[in-house]
Amino acid sequence: MAEYRFLQIDAFAERAMMGGPAAVMPLDAFLSDEVMLAIAAENNLAETAFVVAKTPGVWDLRWFTPLLEVPMCGHATLASAHALFSHLGYDGPEIAFDSKAGRLTVKRLADGQLEMDFPAQPPRDVPMPEGLCDALGATPDRIVAGPYLMAIFATPKEVRALKPDLTRVNEISGGATGGRGNLICAAPGASEGFDVVSRFFAPGSGIPEDPATGSAHCIIAPYFSKLLGKTELNCFQAYPGRGAHITTRLSGERVKLIGRARTVIEGVFRL
Question: Domain range holding 266?
Fold first, then answer.
């Protein structure tokens, strides 16, 4: 029987059972794709991250949902860095992850938060896809698209009230972007004390709704930084019953994603 260390970590969380849960599994070498996907399905979290030491301060990193491997995942990257800093003995100032999204770095800040460096993905204006308003049960003010489609609403109240038809969201969003059928819904959040309030529906990745999505904020940050005229944004992802606090700081073609992480489970995964 093979045994692997397992940590479940809440990322972008001010306290336990907030933010987005991710599993982190450090390995000596990556297992087969089929086995890693089966482990992710067994964990049944939005993402399971697998990390393999490469050179001093550098790890290879891959992410799997219960349905497929994804090219980039912010909250599971934050969780992986937290695991290395807090549980696996790494005491350097910065971690580098090599991934299918390129090299991603994570720093530990003086206040205990972690700062990730990701590529910014400015969205472009696109026409309102046919059927999207019916699928959402609401009418956004504007539609933009990057790797994901993003629907812009006037108020956080509209975003929080959404009860979308996820089958149709998958079809419509995937058709509009040529990618997986995932959708960001966001609004200026000043009425709630935030710069941006958002939700992320990811049926195309096998996740009805994701609690904390770093990759979505690579689109949110350049759009709302321009809209609001500020490079740093205090963002809240309003997953019902949880909620994730994500600070973004736009820096040229990069975006810093800043937040805290909390370990909630440690154990052993046996195969």
Answer: 3-117+258-270
Q: Which residues pair with 109 in a beta bridge?
A: none
| CB neighbours of residue 134 within 10 Å | 13
Q: Which of 72, 62, 68 is nearest to 121 (CA)?
A: 72
What are the tokens at 180? 């997986």
The predicted-structure confidence for 213-265, as pLDDT tens digits, reads as follows: 999 999 999 999 999 999 999 999 999 999 999 999 999 999 999 999 999 99
Contact 47, 65 (CB under 8 A): yes
- Total Cβ atoms within 10 A of residue 14: 13
In single-letter form, the type of residue at position 169 comes to V
- Interatomic CA distance for residues 168 and 1, integer angstroms: 43
Residue 158 annotated among the catalytic residues of the structure = no
Say yes or no: 80 and 34 in one domain. yes
What is the rounded distance in angstroms from the CA atom of residue 128 to the CA atom of residue 123? Answer: 14
Q: Which one of the listed residues 47, 115, 158, 209 is annotated catalytic?
A: 47
